Amino acid sequence: MKRSVIVGSVCFLLGCAGVALAQSTGLRPEQFIALPWTWTAVQTVALNSLAGISGLTVSSTSTAAASNAQKLLDVELSGANATSTQTTYGAYVSNTHTGTSSTNVGLLATASGGSTNHAAEFPRGTVVIGSAAGGWSTLSFQGSGDSISGLIGRADGTQDLYFGAPSDSGKYFFRGTGVFNTTNPIVASGLTTGTSADYLCLDASNNVIVQTGVCVISSARFKRDVEPVRDRALDKVMALTPMHFRMDNEHQGHRGDVVREGLIAEDVALADPLLAVYGKDGLAQSWDEQGVIALLVKAVQEQQEEIVALKTAMKHTPK
Description:
This protein is α+β, with helices and mostly antiparallel strands. It has 6 helices and 11 strands. Among the domains are: 1-57, no CATH class; 148-190, no CATH class; 194-225, no CATH class; 227-315, no CATH class. The chain has helices at 2-14, 16-24, 29-32, 233-238, 265-271, 289-315, and strands spanning 135-141, 148-155, 158-163, 172-176, 187-189, 199-202, 208-211, 243-245, 260-262, 276-278, 284-287. Helix 1 packs across helix 2 (16-24). The longest helix has 27 residues, at 289-315.
């Protein structure tokens, strides 16, 4: 049985005439197949009685790999199509078995034994999951513990990525229509929300959470080198200039092209560099709202001390 499968495979690849040629050279068919070969006619093999064996097995135990060029099976498709707008396939694998409680696998790839093992690599091109015709396609991550399944596809004119089935309550999905922007936002569903506007934050472990307060932690247990601000805050506050402005088109956000009030990051950096937020280029990009609030509190305290001192002086001034 095993030899008939081997010969049948060689006959499929070379044609039965190729098998006869291999035998006429004194080589076994499995030796001849290792030589470079080509064919011009379409070769078809039907294995309709295939049971618990492989219809085609190509194997090698060679230890002579060199120049990172060893390939057990190299499939190449090239040339200019005479007819335009053609979709061609370097390899086309389909499994349409039917059967009760059965599982069909179109392609299975594994890699092991090396220091680094990649079951599949896609160095060029786009990896497409699903078809333009719609319907759901599943991307499943499975391991020895819990598995995560995501449904990727188009439903009711939307483009969704679900973790869990769309009908499952408490599951999360991210939705957007077209390009994600101010008119086509990303929607996160399934996150617990309060009765008022909440904040989507990252916790210390980089988990996305919903928080009723702003995304700032302020407990002393998360801080070190804590000491009072000793600089004169009122002078820094007086150096800040609230401004009216409009944002550039690409930075308008959901509010659109409206007149706003606020501070300029460069002005805040001049007043106190510690209160500015800097980009990767080292330039002031924004300002630390929590830090400015603390500065304002300190400024009010200083101003109140001056008021108390003035009142005390006035009491001791002769009328």
